[in-house]
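Quick one, C-alpha coordinates below. Sequence please?
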Protein backbone atom coordinates (compact mmCIF):
# COMPACT_ATOMS: atom_id res chain seq x y z
CA UNK A 1 0.00 0.00 0.00
CA UNK A 2 2.78 2.44 0.96
CA UNK A 3 4.30 2.51 -2.55
CA UNK A 4 0.94 3.71 -3.80
CA UNK A 5 0.39 6.25 -1.02
CA UNK A 6 -0.18 9.09 -3.51
CA UNK A 7 -3.20 7.26 -4.97
CA UNK A 8 -4.68 5.98 -1.70
CA UNK A 9 -7.16 8.15 0.21
CA UNK A 10 -6.95 6.60 3.67
CA UNK A 11 -9.65 8.65 5.35
CA UNK A 12 -12.43 9.24 2.83
CA UNK A 13 -14.75 10.22 5.69
CA UNK A 14 -12.83 13.52 5.82
CA UNK A 15 -13.39 14.21 2.12
CA UNK A 16 -17.09 15.05 1.55
CA UNK A 17 -17.25 18.28 -0.45
CA UNK A 18 -13.46 18.33 -0.99
CA UNK A 19 -12.80 15.65 -3.61
CA UNK A 20 -12.45 18.07 -6.50
CA UNK A 21 -9.51 19.73 -4.71
CA UNK A 22 -7.50 16.59 -5.59
CA UNK A 23 -7.59 17.46 -9.30
CA UNK A 24 -8.97 20.99 -9.76
CA UNK A 25 -8.64 20.89 -13.56
CA UNK A 26 -11.09 17.97 -13.80
CA UNK A 27 -14.62 18.88 -14.83
CA UNK A 28 -16.55 15.83 -13.60
CA UNK A 29 -16.39 13.57 -10.54
CA UNK A 30 -17.24 9.88 -10.94
CA UNK A 31 -17.05 6.84 -8.66
CA UNK A 32 -16.38 3.25 -9.67
CA UNK A 33 -17.89 0.74 -7.27
CA UNK A 34 -15.88 -2.46 -6.66
CA UNK A 35 -12.98 -1.70 -9.01
CA UNK A 36 -11.29 -5.07 -8.43
CA UNK A 37 -7.84 -5.17 -10.06
CA UNK A 38 -8.50 -1.91 -11.86
CA UNK A 39 -8.18 -2.47 -15.60
CA UNK A 40 -11.36 -0.44 -16.32
CA UNK A 41 -10.37 2.11 -13.66
CA UNK A 42 -7.01 3.09 -15.11
CA UNK A 43 -8.06 2.86 -18.76
CA UNK A 44 -11.10 5.06 -18.06
CA UNK A 45 -9.02 7.62 -16.16
CA UNK A 46 -6.37 7.65 -18.90
CA UNK A 47 -8.97 8.11 -21.63
CA UNK A 48 -10.83 10.88 -19.75
CA UNK A 49 -8.35 13.42 -18.35
CA UNK A 50 -11.24 15.80 -17.54
CA UNK A 51 -12.79 13.18 -15.22
CA UNK A 52 -11.74 12.72 -11.59
CA UNK A 53 -12.40 9.04 -10.84
CA UNK A 54 -12.63 7.63 -7.30
CA UNK A 55 -12.47 3.83 -7.13
CA UNK A 56 -14.09 2.18 -4.10
CA UNK A 57 -13.01 -1.39 -3.30
CA UNK A 58 -13.52 -3.26 -0.05
CA UNK A 59 -10.77 -5.87 -0.64
CA UNK A 60 -7.37 -4.22 -0.11
CA UNK A 61 -5.43 -6.97 -1.96
CA UNK A 62 -7.35 -6.26 -5.17
CA UNK A 63 -7.13 -2.51 -4.67
CA UNK A 64 -3.33 -2.63 -4.37
CA UNK A 65 -3.11 -4.26 -7.80
CA UNK A 66 -5.32 -1.48 -9.20
CA UNK A 67 -3.29 1.25 -7.51
CA UNK A 68 -0.05 -0.18 -8.91
CA UNK A 69 -1.50 0.19 -12.41
CA UNK A 70 -2.38 3.84 -11.72
CA UNK A 71 1.11 4.42 -10.34
CA UNK A 72 2.80 2.84 -13.36
CA UNK A 73 0.90 5.21 -15.66
CA UNK A 74 1.39 8.12 -13.22
CA UNK A 75 -2.31 8.98 -13.52
CA UNK A 76 -3.25 12.10 -11.57
CA UNK A 77 -7.04 11.92 -11.99
CA UNK A 78 -7.73 8.64 -10.19
CA UNK A 79 -7.74 7.82 -6.46
CA UNK A 80 -8.66 4.76 -4.41
CA UNK A 81 -10.49 4.13 -1.16
CA UNK A 82 -10.76 0.78 0.63
CA UNK A 83 -14.26 0.96 1.98
CA UNK A 84 -17.59 -0.79 1.63
CA UNK A 85 -19.83 1.17 -0.74
CA UNK A 86 -22.61 0.78 1.83
CA UNK A 87 -20.80 3.72 3.47
CA UNK A 88 -20.82 5.94 0.38
CA UNK A 89 -22.77 8.65 2.20
CA UNK A 90 -19.93 8.95 4.74
CA UNK A 91 -17.53 9.72 1.87
CA UNK A 92 -19.39 12.10 -0.44
CA UNK A 93 -21.54 15.17 0.16
CA UNK A 94 -25.13 15.26 -1.11
CA UNK A 95 -25.13 15.86 -4.87
CA UNK A 96 -21.32 15.79 -5.12
CA UNK A 97 -21.00 13.10 -7.81
CA UNK A 98 -21.70 13.38 -11.52
CA UNK A 99 -21.82 9.65 -12.14
CA UNK A 100 -21.06 6.12 -10.99
CA UNK A 101 -19.85 2.96 -12.68
CA UNK A 102 -21.07 -0.38 -11.35
CA UNK A 103 -19.26 -3.16 -13.20
CA UNK A 104 -19.83 -6.87 -12.63
CA UNK A 105 -20.92 -6.61 -9.02
CA UNK A 106 -21.52 -9.87 -7.16
CA UNK A 107 -24.95 -11.25 -8.18
CA UNK A 108 -25.89 -12.68 -4.76
CA UNK A 109 -28.29 -15.17 -6.42
CA UNK A 110 -30.16 -16.28 -3.29
CA UNK A 111 -33.29 -14.29 -2.58
CA UNK A 112 -32.37 -13.96 1.09
CA UNK A 113 -29.28 -11.99 -0.02
CA UNK A 114 -31.06 -9.64 -2.44
CA UNK A 115 -30.35 -6.62 -0.22
CA UNK A 116 -26.62 -7.19 -0.74
CA UNK A 117 -26.85 -6.68 -4.50
CA UNK A 118 -25.29 -3.31 -5.27
CA UNK A 119 -28.28 -2.42 -7.45
CA UNK A 120 -30.83 -3.18 -4.72
CA UNK A 121 -33.04 -0.16 -3.99
CA UNK A 122 -31.39 0.25 -0.57
CA UNK A 123 -28.09 0.98 -2.33
CA UNK A 124 -29.74 2.96 -5.15
CA UNK A 125 -31.34 5.29 -2.62
CA UNK A 126 -27.92 6.02 -1.11
CA UNK A 127 -26.39 6.60 -4.56
CA UNK A 128 -29.27 8.93 -5.44
CA UNK A 129 -28.37 11.24 -2.57
CA UNK A 130 -24.65 11.59 -3.37
CA UNK A 131 -25.29 12.00 -7.10
CA UNK A 132 -26.22 15.37 -8.52
CA UNK A 133 -29.87 15.45 -9.72
CA UNK A 134 -29.74 13.88 -13.17
CA UNK A 135 -26.51 12.04 -12.31
CA UNK A 136 -25.80 8.79 -14.11
CA UNK A 137 -25.15 5.17 -13.24
CA UNK A 138 -23.50 3.09 -15.97
CA UNK A 139 -24.07 -0.57 -15.14
CA UNK A 140 -22.57 -3.70 -16.71
CA UNK A 141 -22.97 -7.37 -15.80
CA UNK A 142 -22.80 -10.81 -17.39
CA UNK A 143 -25.54 -12.07 -15.07
CA UNK A 144 -28.98 -12.00 -16.74
CA UNK A 145 -31.07 -12.49 -13.56
CA UNK A 146 -29.12 -9.68 -11.85
CA UNK A 147 -29.61 -7.43 -14.89
CA UNK A 148 -33.36 -8.12 -14.93
CA UNK A 149 -33.57 -7.52 -11.17
CA UNK A 150 -31.66 -4.25 -11.56
CA UNK A 151 -33.88 -2.97 -14.38
CA UNK A 152 -36.90 -3.65 -12.14
CA UNK A 153 -35.28 -1.82 -9.21
CA UNK A 154 -34.50 1.23 -11.40
CA UNK A 155 -38.09 1.24 -12.66
CA UNK A 156 -39.55 0.80 -9.16
CA UNK A 157 -37.71 3.94 -8.01
CA UNK A 158 -38.74 5.90 -11.11
CA UNK A 159 -35.22 6.23 -12.53
CA UNK A 160 -35.24 6.47 -16.35
CA UNK A 161 -33.08 3.84 -18.07
CA UNK A 162 -31.37 4.40 -21.42
CA UNK A 163 -29.12 2.49 -23.80
CA UNK A 164 -30.25 -0.93 -22.59
CA UNK A 165 -28.47 -3.80 -24.31
CA UNK A 166 -28.44 -7.50 -23.45
CA UNK A 167 -25.44 -8.13 -25.72
CA UNK A 168 -23.08 -5.17 -25.68
CA UNK A 169 -20.34 -6.74 -27.77
CA UNK A 170 -22.60 -8.51 -30.26
CA UNK A 171 -20.92 -6.76 -33.20
CA UNK A 172 -17.42 -6.51 -31.73
CA UNK A 173 -15.89 -4.96 -28.61
CA UNK A 174 -17.50 -1.72 -27.37
CA UNK A 175 -15.95 0.65 -24.84
CA UNK A 176 -13.41 -0.05 -22.11
CA UNK A 177 -13.56 -3.58 -20.66
CA UNK A 178 -13.09 -4.58 -17.05
CA UNK A 179 -10.94 -7.54 -15.98
CA UNK A 180 -14.04 -9.73 -15.51
CA UNK A 181 -15.58 -8.52 -18.75
CA UNK A 182 -12.51 -9.50 -20.76
CA UNK A 183 -12.79 -13.05 -19.41
CA UNK A 184 -16.52 -13.32 -20.15
CA UNK A 185 -16.08 -11.77 -23.60
CA UNK A 186 -13.41 -14.34 -24.43
CA UNK A 187 -15.80 -17.11 -23.36
CA UNK A 188 -18.55 -15.67 -25.57
CA UNK A 189 -20.80 -14.76 -22.62
CA UNK A 190 -23.16 -11.85 -23.50
CA UNK A 191 -22.56 -8.66 -21.53
CA UNK A 192 -25.58 -6.63 -20.41
CA UNK A 193 -25.35 -2.85 -20.03
CA UNK A 194 -27.54 0.16 -19.33
CA UNK A 195 -27.36 3.80 -18.27
CA UNK A 196 -29.64 5.15 -15.55
CA UNK A 197 -30.55 8.74 -14.61
CA UNK A 198 -31.08 9.31 -10.90
CA UNK A 199 -32.83 11.92 -8.81
CA UNK A 200 -32.54 12.17 -5.02
CA UNK A 201 -34.95 10.09 -2.96
CA UNK A 202 -35.25 9.37 0.73
CA UNK A 203 -34.93 5.87 2.17
CA UNK A 204 -38.02 3.70 1.74
CA UNK A 205 -36.74 0.72 3.73
CA UNK A 206 -33.69 -0.17 5.85
CA UNK A 207 -30.67 -0.61 3.60
CA UNK A 208 -27.95 -3.21 3.86
CA UNK A 209 -25.25 -1.53 5.95
CA UNK A 210 -22.15 -3.71 6.03
CA UNK A 211 -20.56 -6.52 4.06
CA UNK A 212 -17.86 -8.29 6.06
CA UNK A 213 -14.96 -9.66 3.97
CA UNK A 214 -14.97 -13.42 4.10
CA UNK A 215 -18.31 -13.51 5.87
CA UNK A 216 -19.90 -15.16 2.86
CA UNK A 217 -18.53 -17.72 0.45
CA UNK A 218 -17.80 -17.01 -3.21
CA UNK A 219 -20.68 -19.39 -3.96
CA UNK A 220 -23.12 -17.25 -1.97
CA UNK A 221 -21.91 -14.06 -3.70
CA UNK A 222 -22.52 -15.85 -6.98
CA UNK A 223 -18.91 -15.99 -8.15
CA UNK A 224 -18.51 -19.77 -7.99
C1 LIG B 1 -16.92 -9.64 -9.35
S1 LIG B 1 -15.70 -8.48 -8.90
C2 LIG B 1 -15.63 -7.37 -10.30
C3 LIG B 1 -14.40 -6.51 -10.30
C4 LIG B 1 -14.33 -5.47 -11.44
N1 LIG B 1 -15.40 -4.50 -11.34
C5 LIG B 1 -14.37 -6.15 -12.78
O1 LIG B 1 -15.40 -6.08 -13.46
O2 LIG B 1 -13.36 -6.77 -13.15
C6 LIG B 1 -16.59 -7.50 -7.71
C7 LIG B 1 -15.68 -6.56 -6.95
O3 LIG B 1 -16.48 -5.70 -6.16
C8 LIG B 1 -15.95 -5.64 -4.84
N2 LIG B 1 -17.08 -5.39 -3.94
C9 LIG B 1 -18.11 -6.22 -3.73
N3 LIG B 1 -18.97 -5.69 -2.85
C10 LIG B 1 -18.46 -4.47 -2.51
C11 LIG B 1 -18.89 -3.45 -1.64
N4 LIG B 1 -20.01 -3.59 -0.93
N5 LIG B 1 -18.13 -2.34 -1.53
C12 LIG B 1 -16.97 -2.22 -2.24
N6 LIG B 1 -16.51 -3.17 -3.08
C13 LIG B 1 -17.25 -4.28 -3.22
C14 LIG B 1 -15.29 -7.00 -4.63
O4 LIG B 1 -14.31 -6.97 -3.62
C15 LIG B 1 -14.72 -7.27 -6.01
O5 LIG B 1 -13.42 -6.74 -6.16
Amino acid sequence: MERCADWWVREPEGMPGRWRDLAPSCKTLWVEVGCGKGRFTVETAAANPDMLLIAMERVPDAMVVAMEKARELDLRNVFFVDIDVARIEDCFAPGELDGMYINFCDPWPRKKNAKRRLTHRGFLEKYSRVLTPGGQIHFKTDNAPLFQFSLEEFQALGFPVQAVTWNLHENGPVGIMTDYEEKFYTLGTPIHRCEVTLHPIEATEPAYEKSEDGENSAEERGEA
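Residues 34-36, 56-59, 62, 84-86, 103-106, 178-181, 211 surround S-adenosylmethionine (CB under 6 Å). The radius of gyration is 16 Å.
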